[in-house]
Amino acid sequence: MSRPTPYSGRTRATAPRQGYDLPATLAAHSASSSLDTASSSPTCRGYGDEWAADGNDRLSSQHLGLGALSFGVFAIRDRFSGYIVALECVPDTCDADSLADVFLTAVELEQGVPSRLVIDNGPENDKMLQVQVTLHDRFRPTQTESSPPPYEVKTPNASLLNLWSQWMRNEGRMLQHTIQVDAGPAGFDPDDGLHLAAALFVWSQVIQAHLDAVRRIANMMRVRRQPNKVAGLISGHVPDMARRGWHGGERCIVPCSLDVVRGLRSSGVVGPTLGFVGAEFEVAAHWAHDEMGRPALRRVNAWDIWDELCERLS
Q1: DSSP secondary structure, 53-105, as one string
Q2: How many alpha carbons lie under 13 Å from residue 160 in its C-beta half-sphere?
Q3: Domain Integrase catalytic, which positions (predicted)?
Q4: How many helices (H) does the chain have, and how many strands (E)?
Q5: What share of the chain is helix, strand, coil (3-state, %, to 5)?
Q6: Cα–Cα dist 81/52, whole Å
């Protein structure tokens, strides 16, 4: 077998694909003063009234210092409940297609879009905004010119600051330490194509497993009942989504047709996402992992499995 090389990303066309440009509705919304960095309303009406979306780059090549070995983490969180809608390991938090794909998957699961999406002003959010505005304007046509736009640009994104702070104090810090410190003893050479591809294959799965656990545990936590508080007050009260009736919360998701949502992918609005490795290498790596008895990928054994994968694929 020829030595595989890591996937370096899609070749980007000089001209944008059809459907990439933001729709006219987004251009119209851009003139709204709500795009200014400003505080949100002190209250939320209920689940889906506001989703915050943001990425974290503490596991990127810039911070790992191991050549092209790089991972991004992207999250979507509901402000009313604190519920983590999505928490995904992505190859690059600056890739618009990857972020839009995560958002579109969340929209499919919820069968609708939030009333408002809060993001920062980076260009990597363009396609995600396109999905939000297109679906929001199509399935909520009663909006008037005076109605607030379906998104808000805000930096920093307060709804996710606490999540990232906890992530980097706990799981993120341990993952970063293990990847960096144990790479040398494991014999990792960032300039070796096989070494890099195998590391991307192994560690992307380990990181995602940790993220799944973080999301599962966080979404199981219950907030004490404070019946005299209004939902989402600046006092810090965050009502429990599962018991939102206690706090007068309502479901604010804008229902969307799943056929239309899925059609956004086939129409090219959301293109193919960046992969950690090429398709050929991924098949070969899974085959080698099966030959090994498919040992569970964990932080403590990731470099050991990586070493054996390299031997089998060399």
Answers
A1: EEEE-TTSHHHH-STT---EEEEEEETTT--EEEEEEES-TT-HHHHHHHHHH
A2: 27
A3: 38-124
A4: 10, 7
A5: 45, 10, 45
A6: 12
As given in the structure block, the two tokens for residue 183 are: 């790479």
Distance CA 143, CA 164 (A): 34
pTM of the model: 0.80
> What residues have CB less than 8 Å from 239, skipping those under 6 apart?
80, 81, 223, 229, 231, 232, 246, 247, 249
Burial string for 150-181 (b: 16+ CB within 10 Å, else e) reads bbbbbeebebbeebbeebbeebbeebbebbee
Question: Which residues on adjacent β-strands are paired with residue 44?
Answer: none
How far apart, in whole angstroms, are the C-alpha atoms of residue 64 and residue 77? 26
* Residue 144, helix vs strand vs coil: coil
Give the whole-angstrom CA distance, residue 299 versus residue 198: 15
Give helix 158-169 / helix 171-186 axis angle, nearest 10°: 40
Encode pLDDT of 70-113 as tens digits. 999 999 998 877 889 999 999 999 999 999 999 999 999 999 99
Q: What secondary structure letter does DSSP report for 7?
A: -
